[in-house]
Amino acid sequence: MFAREYVANLAARGDYHFTTDDVAKATGRSPRAVRAQLRRLKARGTIAEPVQSFHIIIPPEYRSRGCLPPEQFIPQLMGLIGEPYYFALLSAAQRHGAAHQRPQVDKVMVRKNRPSIECGQVRVEFVARRDLRRMPVCEFNTPRGTARYSTPELTALELVGYPNYAGGLSNVLAVLRDLVDEMEAEGLVEAAHLSPVSWSQRLGYLLERIEEIDLARALRPLVSAHAQSFTPLRRAVSRIGADRNGTWKLIVNVDIEPDE
Q: Which of 74, 87, 106, 182 has its CA 20 to 30 A from that of 156?
């Protein structure tokens, strides 16, 4: 058996992920010979290798992109290496119907930093959060299985917690306007108790800005009980002369208008 036959058999069974070792074991050929055969398949656009020795089969509808969408191979990759994960930030917001356009780079939360992935036109960046196993997630079906995403409420908190990964606070505010339709107060409080209190301070203020009073009100007890000091709305900007919001113990050191 040649590598091309192995790949064809996998696709016929609806399996689109494999490793170099899988091919070597199935064909009885040396790793060197297998790699040579796989290089030829890559050159033809039949397969891609987003991570060394981890391969994906590219069906015709994705040949122009040179890769499967991230949600169709990241879960399998993370399962192979035994790492927890979930799609986060603008990638999760888009899944929940709250992104104006699909993000150019997908963001995946993992326990520690990993090199980004470039596969054809697909870009995946990893963001580290050590306690991600505790975070509330939801699963969505994909043509290749299921993929894990942060809940709408956790997504909102992480957007204000990692604004540099989300196009800045003005973009975050615009995304929140759509994301709130999927958010519930109970879920927001649950996620807030698992996150830094400064995120709740910022998010509560932004929710009030877009007149989502019920959601903002749900965060007030946590902020009142746990916020020990005033925190800046934007950390990298001077606080001199900035207004202070007593409700959220927030230094409003930037003027934010939502991106249209």
A: 74
